[in-house]
Input
Amino acid sequence: MCADDYPDGVPEPPQLPLPGTLMVDLVRDRVGEFRGEECGRWFLRPMGGGVEWTADPADVRPANPEQRIRAKTARANARSRGEVL
Output
């Protein structure tokens, strides 16, 4: 079921980040780019390439500066190896 309406007393989901914002999935301990939302699940994509995954918005927060640098470095390294464009 996918509904934007929540019963009374249930808090609204977190505000959607802009596409491309680096986020941390606390359950998987992974950093990924925010890609979008569907049915209350957020889609994240690894910076270094790979398969998107879904996460519960309650388990996701913005990446801190150190996490952003590590993710960008991983992407640059994957690109230099020809793994991503």
In short: The mean pLDDT is 86. DSSP finds one helix and five strands in the chain. Residues 22-80 form one domain.
